[in-house]
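Handout, section 3.2

Students often ask what a structure token actually looks like in practice. Rather than define it abstractly, here is a full record for Diacylglycerol O-acyltransferase. The first block is the sequence as you would receive it.
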Amino acid sequence: MSDRLTSLDASFLYLEESTTAMHIGSVMVFEPLDSGFDYDQLVTIIENRLSAIPRFRQKVRDVPGRIGNPVWVDDEGFDMSYHVRRAALPRPGSDRQLQDFVARVQPRRLDRTRPLWEVYLVEGLQGGRFAIVTKTHQALIDGVNALDIAHVIVDSVPEPAPDESSPDLPVRWEPSRAPSSVELVTEALVDAVRRPTQVVDLVRGGVNDAVNVGVRALESAGAFLSTVARTAARPAPSSPLNAEIGSARRWVMVATDLDDYRIVRKRLARGAYAEDVTINDVVLATIAGGFRTWLLGRGEPVSSGTVVRAMVPVSIYGDDPSGMYANQVMACVVNLPVGEPGASMRLHQIAFAMRQQMEGGQAVGATSLANLAGFAPPTLHALGARLGSAMSRRLYNVMITNVPGPQTPLYAGDAEMVSTYPVTPLAKGQALSIGITSYNGGVYYGLNADRDAMPDVGDLGQSIVESLAELSSGRES
């Protein structure tokens, strides 16, 4: 029997459009040793590890007549050189040039006739550095492990490139025979007998496919739906963050120091508000301050009651040296108080709102999110898309995804990763998404924005840096 896509994974394919590509990405920057790092070494690393993850050599194939969900089949013409590509920045190889490169390649949809991932080795960065840019479709990612191609590339220990006599060289891969159209139809019918309610939905075809897939996914969401229902009764405020979007993007990376967030948390814990302020609260307060400065700089009206509503799949930071907190993920909807002029007060309001949701059972735990195909941002974006773009706008103004990484170095071969930035997709009507990753003492922001709706996303990035400085210094605006 072929490995069939779940209804949720299939929905990421059905609902994908030119303006809303359903893949996630990452930008990892490395410092190579004197021996350097090249394309062949990257290919070898990936080849060595794909044998344990056959999904990355499989492609999606539709069932004739759409009488069943698509299936995964081995790509008999798998071409590693197509998926692993090489690029170079012109001199001087600045961060701005890297950002422009990412903004060009990330919005492009992945080729449905091939396995749904791509990797770019970007050479020529200043200081001898290089970057690895990844793209992985949400349909490819397992809901429990949330694995994407970036996890295949990096490791916790440095590994020199194997020579030709190394026993670790990849075993030759032999694809399984692709099923015929008749076999696909037969398997779908057998599956339908086992699960008769599924075929009733699927044979309706056309637009109803996406609707029915969405209904099943929403029914499985459980507690998350309760949060959505409560939020829908209180529509998100109008905001320049919500606009009709195109296919072109701007992408900005912002690097900050994790110790600065810890300083803010420690200082406020000794103040008049002895609240359980988390590092994540400080991150959200930093973003709120950045939004405030950005809106004022745009000449937008900002009153004491102005808020930006964020959908936040939250990963709580801690001091565990392993840096892995997979069971501490909560999905919250929080109003960022951008109208509040005091930085410390913004933080306390956010901390109170977040704690209220978590303690009141309004947030969704990690297991629930895993059942919805992981807490990666497209999961919640897709939920909004299934309800339609109008509903998505009503729910929130911006998605902020905060994912912790290890606080020890990672390596590609023997090259150390010095920073890593997420690239999170946009949903319909959402001009901006913010991805945040902590890694080895740093907190790294990736701001992905519609090119026309947010030409000043770079100003927002600078405003976030200034907001953190305001919080850590203790001064108030």
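Discussion prompt for tutorial groups: The radius of gyration is 23 Å. How would you have guessed this from the sequence alone?
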